[in-house]
Backbone:
């Protein structure tokens, strides 16, 4: 009985337990609810022990959506110096993604987490049955379309021993020519336990610009925005927006204040850009090879018509400032400087 104790079998999970006593009281398969704390962000939630053992903690705040087994296996192939594509998509089955695709070897590796196996004995569970059918469909299409090796790895438990065993007993060691001692397994665990979200938070709090963060962490701008918002919600990111002097957007200076008193901010929907002044519009499109004149822009703004194929919508300076402040976490672009408060009163 004693040898099933979670704290003994999985010492790597101890750091999640708020009460260490509980970790040494219950077995891995216990349905007992325990309070657990995310070691990365501090989020606390309660979970049945058996679920925690098989699925891991799955933090709603700092989880990056890449599963533990996926990060584990990705790191293993990184160590082997293999080049591969993650979540690969093929035209012969465009609505499905494959976990790892080794293009030089014409090989696909699928990593099956716990959800793939839970349903198998209970075939009446429609959702799990569907998962299983999808696996068969994916394998068939891959092999019918020129993939030479199609390897599925059982990672139904998110822990080192289980995944290591599955890998070492699969075709992978032979195919990729490695043995157990060639892999730094602890490094796989560390990669699996790390979070892209946490990495983004650290870079953000260190004051890096969006561009700098995106060049280090391979995620989209939308994902970056989502991660920062999550960090802000639990008080880890010190602000939701970057300070003004950290901005990455293109600045085209309008040097004289005179223009700002009667500046007319506009929005160009086709290009999804907010402009502070006509001068910003002219400079921006000139750099794109489009020559515009202030009078033509003015006509286009006032008559809701177009010049050089661009339609302009007038906006207020206050609206422009709002857009400016949110630009770093939005999809649109902003060209020009934020208006000083003294200009806001002027219509
Ligand atoms: Zn967390």
Residues:
């Amino acid at each position: 009985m004693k040898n099933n104790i979670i704290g003994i079998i999985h010492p790597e999970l101890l750091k999640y337990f708020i009460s260490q006593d509980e970790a040494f009281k219950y077995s891995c398969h216990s349905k007992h609810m325990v309070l657990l704390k995310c070691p990365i962000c501090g989020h606390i939630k309660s979970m049945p022990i058996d679920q925690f053992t098989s699925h891991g903690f799955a933090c709603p705040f700092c989880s990056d959506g890449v599963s533990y087994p996926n990060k584990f296996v990705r790191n293993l192939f990184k160590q082997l110096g293999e080049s591969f594509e993650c979540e690969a998509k093929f035209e012969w089955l465009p609505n499905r993604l494959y976990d790892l695709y080794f293009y030089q070897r014409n090989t696909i590796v699928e990593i099956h987490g716990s959800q793939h196996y839970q349903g198998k004995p209970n075939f009446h569970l429609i959702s799990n049955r569907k998962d299983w059918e999808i696996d068969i469909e994916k394998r068939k299409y891959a092999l019918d379309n020129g993939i030479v090796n199609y390897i599925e790895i059982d990672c139904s438990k998110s822990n080192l021993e289980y995944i290591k065993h599955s890998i070492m007993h699969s075709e992978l060691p032979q195919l990729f020519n490695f043995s157990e001692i060639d892999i730094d397994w602890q490094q796989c665990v560390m990669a699996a336990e790390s979070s892209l979200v946490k990495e983004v938070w650290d870079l953000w709090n260190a004051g890096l610009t969006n561009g700098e963060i995106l060049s280090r962490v391979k995620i989209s701008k939308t994902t970056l925005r989502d991660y920062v918002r999550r960090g802000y919600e639990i008080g880890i990111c010190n602000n939701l927006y970057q300070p003004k002097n950290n901005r990455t957007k293109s600045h085209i200076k309008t040097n004289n204040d005179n223009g700002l008193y009667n500046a007319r901010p506009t929005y160009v929907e086709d290009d999804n850009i907010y402009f502070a002044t006509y001068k910003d519009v002219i400079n921006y499109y000139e750099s794109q090879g489009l020559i515009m004149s202030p009078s033509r822009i003015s006509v286009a703004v006032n008559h809701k018509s177009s010049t050089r194929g661009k339609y302009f919508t007038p906006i207020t300076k206050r609206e422009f400032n709002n857009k400016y402040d949110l630009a770093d976490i939005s999809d649109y672009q902003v060209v020009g400087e934020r208006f000083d408060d003294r200009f806001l009163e002027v219509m």
Q: What stands out?
A: Residues 249-344 form one domain. The pocket of zinc ion is lined by residues 38, 40-41, 43, 59, 61-62 (CB under 6 Å).
